[in-house]
What does this fold into?
Amino acid sequence: MSRAPSADFVMEHLLQEANREFSGWTFERDPSGWTAVRGDVRLTRPSLAALRALLRVHRATRRR
It folds into this structure.
């Protein structure tokens, strides 16, 4: 029988993925959700998944 990973372990893994995907951004968690910061830009969403989706859109629009 295998044990499921803890929620903290899973969240740490997801945060590491976000840091790899969005190098140069820092991620902060507070009671209202997650914030990504890069220079003067601050983007906040209620979940890390939603924040990563927003950062993908932000990255795509900057490349145009």
